[in-house]
Amino acid sequence: MKIIVDGFGGDNAPLAVLQGCELAVKEYGVDLLVTGDEEILKKTARENNISLDRIAFYHAPGVIGMEDEPTALLKEKSDCSMAAAFNLLKGGAGDAFVSGGSTGAIVIGANFIVKRIKGIKRAGLATVIPTINGCYMLMDAGATLDCKPETLTHFGMMGSIYMNKIMDVREPRVGLVNVGTEDTKGGELQQGAFSMMQNAPMNFIGNIEARDIPAGVADVAVADGFTGNVILKLTEGLGSMFSKKIKDMFMEGLGGKLSAVMMMGKIKDFKKSMDYTEYGGAPLLGVMKPVIKAHGSSNPKAFKNAIRQARDFAERNLIGEIEAAVQQMKNAGEE
Amino acid sequence: MKIIVDGFGGDNAPLAVLQGCELAVKEYGVDLLVTGDEEILKKTARENNISLDRIAFYHAPGVIGMEDEPTALLKEKSDCSMAAAFNLLKGGAGDAFVSGGSTGAIVIGANFIVKRIKGIKRAGLATVIPTINGCYMLMDAGATLDCKPETLTHFGMMGSIYMNKIMDVREPRVGLVNVGTEDTKGGELQQGAFSMMQNAPMNFIGNIEARDIPAGVADVAVADGFTGNVILKLTEGLGSMFSKKIKDMFMEGLGGKLSAVMMMGKIKDFKKSMDYTEYGGAPLLGVMKPVIKAHGSSNPKAFKNAIRQARDFAERNLIGEIEAAVQQMKNAGEE
């Protein structure tokens, strides 16, 4: 198993990337191919005593940043670490790819270099988010803003396969995010998706309201990329707000400070249970090869987790499962 | 000043409605006209010692429920308390209207009985939601699912006028909810709205991300009704989840219970600061008369607050302000 890693993706690259690679080799015994400016990568490893056992480099001097247009990946930035990685992935030099770089550029590279699975017209970025007593997959978190009923149906099917094969959820409950739970709710997009999803190969539970998502009403919450992106970011924003409010509550007055000491462990557990980076990166589903988007602010441990995720993605043959599901849906439609 | 009140709107109607009316008469000296089955209303008042000073009834025996199609208001349920109230409002029997009934039916009644302000094609439901240190108005919270750039522009203008005249915010900052803050972000709808909003009479601050809304990045967050409804409901759902997590943290173990005793006051303050029903009901903006949707689970105090809101809405001539803003925008476009 060989995983390709973008050496210059993320706020803490290349140091955190290389440290994550070292941890992953030790823990999972994978082989890694890291793209980027070889001289800088070697120097960073040397200066930080990072073992390069089972880690190879592929020289690509450029970097695509958050300020660059995502499409620059295919043009003026085609020499960058991410573009090189996508081309290596396409050519079969590795089994899966991990990057902490620009989400927009990753979506472009996946769609235009690696290309999509036959029958899937749009890729979706899947993010696993904590609920009150577990987690759910939000699909799509922002890769495809303008969706059709078929797009949402494919998102549901792919999310279901991921939750089943990678997160070990039996018959994942797939819900369509809507403004009400009744079958006829929503606009044209949701109404069209509802009837298509009812007949697709997955455990579709119908429309769900955003109010019920944090309580765990579904294992996969399907939404167009615009709505999904709003859900992801509002979850982050409200999480920060509540954490700050709780912190202020404990910092104020003697009662608060004493309580903070007594409850230190619980506060830490609470924070951890709300931290969605614990679940690793976000898989981009619908493309021909496994692609994992690590969080931009990933630390070495987060990169290590994303590499494990990429390995599982490749090992458990998710691409094959998705291809089979699309075929099954097509056959059912032709009957 | 006379406010029309739907006697049978809300989970706790008619008792909570009548109790709220009694409080409002005492506190604000308004005259009220309550619609519904007169016999039941009188009996409820008598049995609960509710003073009917300055409260008149208008007999309308039917009730439109949450399970009814909203459009039933215009047809088979045209004898209900809400339909009667809308007709009274249209005819000038009162200056404003408050209902805790079905949101869908209120939107229908406002659009088809009272009708919209000239130049405004869609009405929006505005909800005031707490932020870390204040509040913001979400517009639209679900009245109009399919929006055009012009719809969003009008939502921003109307929300701005409301926040200025009713919530006393000087030059309200109006932001467009989008997937990024750059000017070119989003789909067709957002891109079209962005350029139109830049030239409309309001303090438009550009695109905002859902992540920054709870931190108070804007006074008015503009979104289509689908996205807005998801924002409102996810805010509710995450609020419940965090409250439950905090409660569990305090209920567990001796340290937790001791802390709960020491921090009782702060926990109550925290809960209150997160309760968006404190801000009263949701105004439906864009129609010819003031309409306030009270929360379905409103208690007497919430109904009293919604009646005060309706009074302010009428007294401060919001309809006139909105008409003037629409005209100003029209003139600017013709220059």
UniProtKB/TrEMBL annotation, chains A, B:
GO terms for biological process: fatty acid biosynthetic process; phospholipid biosynthetic process. Keywords: Acyltransferase, Cytoplasm, Lipid biosynthesis, Lipid metabolism, Phospholipid biosynthesis, Phospholipid metabolism, Transferase. One of its GO terms (molecular function) is phosphate:acyl-[acyl carrier protein] acyltransferase activity. GO terms for cellular component: cytoplasm. Its EC number is 2.3.1.274. Its main location: cytoplasm. It is an enzyme of class 2 (transferase). The keyword Lipid biosynthesis applies. It catalyses: a fatty acyl-[ACP] + phosphate = an acyl phosphate + holo-[ACP]. It is found in: Cytoplasm. Homodimer. Probably interacts with PlsY. Catalyzes the reversible formation of acyl-phosphate (acyl-PO(4)) from acyl-[acyl-carrier-protein] (acyl-ACP). This enzyme utilizes acyl-ACP as fatty acyl donor, but not acyl-CoA. NCBIfam families: plsX. This is Phosphate acyltransferase. The gene is plsX.
